[in-house]
Structure of TonB-dependent receptor:
Amino acid sequence: MFKLKKVSESLLLAIASYGMATTVSYAQEAPQEEEIERISIVGSNIKRASDIGALPVTAMTEQDIENTAAITGDELLRSIPQIGEVNFGASTGNGGVNDARGDVSSINLRGVGTGNTLTLLNGRRLVTHPGTQSENFVPVSTVNSNTLPVSGLRSLEILRDGAAAIYGSDAVAGVVNYALQDDYEGNKLSLSYGQSEGTPLDELTFSYLTGFDVGDKTHVTASVAYYSRDGMMASERRYSRSHDLRNFPTLPEEFIGDTQLDNRTTATPWGDFVSDSLGRFHLQPADMAPGDCVVDLAGGVCADSGSFPRDLRFDRGTTRSLVSDVDRFNFYTYITHDLGNDMELFAEAIYYEANAERTREQTPNLTSQRFTVAADAAFNPFGEEVLVRSYRPLDAGPRNIEVDDTSYRALLGLKGEWGDWYWETAAFYTAAETNDKANRVNAILFQEAVNSTDPSTAYNIFTGGDVNNPNEGDSTLNPQSVIDSFITTVRRDSETELASIDFKASNEALFSLPTGDVGVALGLEFRHEGFEDDRDPLLDGSSPFTNLVTGATRQDASSVLGSSPTPDSKGSRNVASAFVEFIAPLIDSDSQYLEMQLAARYEDFSDVGGSGLKPKVALFWVPADWISLRASYAEGFRAPGLPQVTAEGVPRANTIYDPVQDRSYSVVDVRSGTTDLEPEDDENTSFGIVLEPTESLTITADWWKIEQEDLVGILPGASHLALDFVRRSQGSTNSAVERDPVSGDVIRINNEYLNLGKREISGIDFSVIYDFETDFGDFEFTVNAAHLKKFDQEPSDIDSELIAFNEAGGFPQPIIIQGAGDLLKQNGRPEWRGRASINWRYEQWGAGINSNYVGSVIDTSTTATVDGEVIELPVDSMTTTNVYVDYRIEGSDSLLDGSKIRFTVRNISDQEPPLADELAHGYFGALHSNRGRYFNLSYSKEF
């Protein structure tokens, strides 16, 4: 018989395929009378006496996690090359009321998209964060990776393979499983302080872990953690302090001076106005262009006719936070109680709360919120009605955004043995809540103040900005009492919940074949998911914007200055599922071993129907001691998220080209969810090789491909109008487009989410791990690289029809169909990401160095023409290097015995993120860090 211990040792390194120690234990040889521990590894539900596995898994131990120097869950995931863009979080520049703000970070394995990675805690689902964001115009949600403290993790396991058949919906790109301490004994106290060089950003972390027995049968593990961060303003970094990037030093020559890189805004306190006598005009410093003034006003300000000049644009980089202030608290406990008769009761509880604060500039009125200043307004110097095209009330002070996040989970379970069967059942309830509030300008009350005839209560909208610094702030302040009359606190309260009960059982020897025992696992799960998004009455559409002078009302504008309305939404679903899994040895001889895994799962959703039976098959073959091969094929699915199903009539007004009228004008696009959506289907294929030429060297390579279809999306408004033109040329119409029967103009687009398009993504993962011992210490060398080879988005049937019609010259003007084709490197998705590290340990000393590489990408928002060829703005690669040294105090009789001191420098060369034409902060925050050189000192003590 082929020795399973040898296979186990080989696979242990394969499972750790990126040089990170696996959490799975060896199957120890033991006397017959001793019970051999049965374990399960991520990717299988069968408990076995060996750790053989056919699937590619990255498993990070507590020591591996510490060596990444990560302080938050966001930073920990970014250290793993297979993790794609982190699209949620403050580092990506979010800040609008429709963004997921606060202490949140997303999980996006393979870069497939937020929501395509199943995230577990101790093997069971985590509740999604209540906040949503739009990706490709569709609201998506995520588990918040900041919910769990990095310092409290026992391990982090990442299954880099489709796993819907094993775990269910969302496991398209794979599974992330967080494991917290559950059997700790003793006490551990940890304290760390970090500082970003040259900035006020610092971080303080405190944690306490304890584990103890209560009597002979009960064990308790518990931990608390506190994290505090003082953030920094965008003005602290040269790439973010100004939104005018036209002459930034690192720009390629072809883009220097390009106005596309001037992201300053025309919405300023200088205002953009229209009146009968002056036509279109704006305010400006009187000495800016004296000959152009048409009306002199007080305070060195005058009115000038014409469109708004570039020299007066407002630079938002001067007022924004780059990193939020955060205070975070975590609590976790795990309790086990031996009931006897081979049964154990276990319970788990977690609690998380965080407060995040950041600032942004006040918003201007939207195009749909243009309003009129009455001729008799107290501070109207023109003596006639004036239309306010655009105005930003900066003297009202910054928007102070405060977000409180909380979540909790309570779980009770029972597990045991019955003959050769190992069974486990558990029920849990978990919920999360986000309370988002900000001081905003009430558009109705603001109009009342602007139009007041009483100077003591009137707001003067014609004072301009700061004549000495026309691109920054507003020095012409209105009285605070007047400002207070229209400032209001706007809230968004969101909640999610997840309740689940499951039962699963496994038997590693259900029956025997000539080649060995066949293992089986089967189980049932029922879960309830809920989602609620409660917007402020000023934002949810119940209080539409009205021009107080003309009486005109706009349903596509809210009564909050600068915000479109979004209705409240609420929904829930019940999900029932069943799975079965088999593992069978096909060959087990003296020279080789071959094993097959078969699994299937069915899930039924109360709102969108069943997923269909999703199978998985995987093979693991050891033809010789030094080589292992693995392959898998899996079908998967992703159910539409509750926000995609429950969204009701979200109106958005945009200027769109209408081929029917052959002109562009403002069109209201009303986006809605629907229960007609079907689950997205996918196929996941992978092949891998593990080479172990020596006991201390392991080399792995895994090729993978994901094919998705029926992706949930929405047709852009421009595509709907183009489709309407095509249909009319064929004698019908696009029913989603409503037009005025007289003028023919579009009244609205009724735009429901649809199952659209297909996508194919593929890549290769590489790793090397080499351990060796010397007289001056033990060394571990690792390399982990991810190569994204393909990311193709096929056009939907509708897009294909429009493309063909366009290529035939059927439209009055050529149109552009976006979001299809080769998306590799575009606005993210680098071809290469990698991490290399060397760790050294000698007696009580330890040290290490590691480097993280993110390849180059392309910013498609900015183009240049060179020798007749259109090129897009290149965004350079980025490499950061971290170093650490630590010392353990052992064998001392002092209070310091059991202590460890570690000093870390992250990004030792102080690399700054490569420039991108990104409005928020001048770089791709989803890919790159803004911390610069960062110092951290930590102390821990076990007792």
Confidence is low (pLDDT under 50) at residues 1-34. The chain is about 5% helix and 50% strand. The CA atoms of residues 587 and 594 lie 5 Å apart. The two ends are 46 Å apart (CA to CA).
